[in-house]
Amino acid sequence: MATIKQIRANRRNAKKSTGPKTEEGKNRTRFNALVHGLRAESAIIPGEDPAKFDQHLERLTNAWMPQDDMEKSLVEQIAINQWKLARIDRAEARIYDPNVKPTDLALAMHRVYLTQVRLERSISSTIADLERYRKQRLTRQQDNKPKHNEEFKIGLVWYNEEGKGHYAVLPQILGLDGIWRDIPADVLGDFPDPPGTA
Questions:
Q1: pLDDT digit string (tens) for 78-137?
Q2: Count: domains in the chain
Q3: Is residue 22 part of a domain?
Q4: What is the distance between the alpha carbons of residues 35 and 177, in angstroms, rounded to a whole number?
Q5: Which range of residues forms the domain containing residue 173?
Q6: CA 99/CA 105 separation, integer angstroms
């Protein structure tokens, strides 16, 4: 067990070593501890071609045709998981080394299998999320669209003690641009001015 003096010395030394300071140094050491890249922060790891990933993402984007940021995010998640799944297939061949003990080989194969299953489930789950989100988005858009031939919304009228009517909410009309606009009260001209405005 470390003594109090050793702990304090370790803390002082740790303050002196804070890692690389420049962007170049950070980029150079970014993948130092990379073993298989399955938990990598970046979708692309050293030795992989970013252009191929971009082509893969473009193919998926063309297939799914995402319409908003949420759908784009889900398509990117599918692309990343498929990219990692392909990375496992490439790395699996390196596991079969004649110098590896059978128990270590079995453990490595088990880990590969579990990771493959996890990624495949993640891809299936993300596709289901994308389809569910798309269905909900289309339903919301249908709800916001005017009903069959709806081009006019009736306003609300209130009457005072004297029986004079006034608009509480003005009627609306659907413009050619698809935006609902209030019809000005002076255009309607149905009712006299509200009390206190004359």
A1: 999 999 998 888 777 777 777 778 788 888 888 888 989 999 999 999 999 999 999 998
A2: 2
A3: no
A4: 56
A5: 152-188
A6: 10
